User: Fold this.
Amino acid sequence: MPLSLLVIVGWLRFLEMRDSAHDDPPIDEEVVRQMAQREDWIPQNHMGSVVLIKPGVLRTIIVRAGHLGLGLMLRVTATNGYLGSMRTVHFAHWAFVNNGGRLMFFSNFDQSWESYLDDFIEKAHDGLTLAWGCGTGFPATRFLIQDGASHGRKFKNWARHSMAISRFWYSAYRDLTVDQVERNNRIADGLRRVKLSEKDAAAWINEL
Amino acid sequence: MDQRAVSEGAPNRGSWRLKAPHDVLTQGLVVSGFGSLPTGRALFLQFAWDGVGTGAWLDTLATVAPVTDADGREARATALSFAYTGLKKMGLSPAALATFAAPFREGMLQEDRLRRIGDRRNGEWLGTVIEGGPKWSANTPRRGALAEVEGGQSAALTATGHREEQITTPITVHALLLLYDTDEEAAEKWAEEVEARLAPHQIKVAHKLPLDLRPDERGVAREHFGFADGISQPIPYDDAAIVLSDGSAAPRDKWNGVPLGEILLGHVNGHHERAPGPILPDDPGGSRGNPKIWSHAYDYIYHHHHPQRGILLV
Assistant:
């Protein structure tokens, strides 16, 4: 077992060291402008991206196991409406498309695209690298979670390069931030309860 | 920098400073709010010359108000910053101007940026802006179609046919000069002297604001928005460039710590790389033949050796 693990880790590092990463992904300034023209009209923005997945047996297994594990872990740990220390993410959805050959990502988030990615880069680059490191051209990774998205500028360019202009998108609460949605939820929860302790009542009034 | 906390009982984290040689390459304003100099003047400078000017005014400025570096306390202090249109009027080449960050090149009045920061939407100023809109700016030209940027941004159309809104303020500011002094009388006299010395260089003081530390009865200073000194004060960390005042290593603050590169170009930032700055060619005058400008201005503006010397104004 330890030997098998060692072989797999060695194989993974071999692949990671041979990966080609975009040092400077080509960004079409005109497309970026068109994206910016459609952003920041309401408190939320949307991001849609599709990337090619790196080929190979080990990659195929790891990327699926990684996404499954990440999804299960977040179901247990992210139960208060927030994604870890980030209080701006309405939802983030990854899906394998094109017969598993591409990874699609959709997300609604509060505030600007730049600050959204900065949050990920500075607070959750490990998880982001695990989820997206399988994408072709992603900044060089180490052991699946290290480096990668922590190279902020390269990662941002790569992410912009992978995006399409969002001509339409859906938001359930288009005028509310995540914080406001959660606050409204806490108020509604309080109204549904038959009894409140003095402490809970004080906390509930504070929400108003 | 002084890290006075406004909350009673808050731990004293000590003060930090830049190590040599970063301290003499950096403007003092980056590390200090000049708390020992409670008053001053902000002079909004407009380059009134036609076409491309010279940098001779910087020599004059150095005799009457030399820019204060970050290597220790001075009897009075000066800070200087440039706007995109100011550097352009001073003759910086289009190739070099193109290497500055987009927010600096585009200015605060670019329509996407105004919408992003909540100042203007659908052609109307929002409640965050004073009535009638901003009074001063660098009046940065709107962006045109990419192919026309070099040619002067005349058509101002993107590929989709979208014409960006051109917002012009009554006052154009090319550079900002901050003067800090010990009392009102000295500050006013100094500001008048600077204005008189710059006038022959066709530099006009287009707008002037008083600077006032305004400490309250508890000695807590508030800046002009009313925020108390010390709240959300970022504490930069960088093992290579920052030490505490006593020379010991500066600890990384868990809550308020930010990588130095987030506020000072050329140092490691939150993206785990040296914050990229603009790049100037070895011959800054280039084919436009303005080496004289840069023999004066070079020390003040970012470049690949001393990227942190200047402060930029958007």
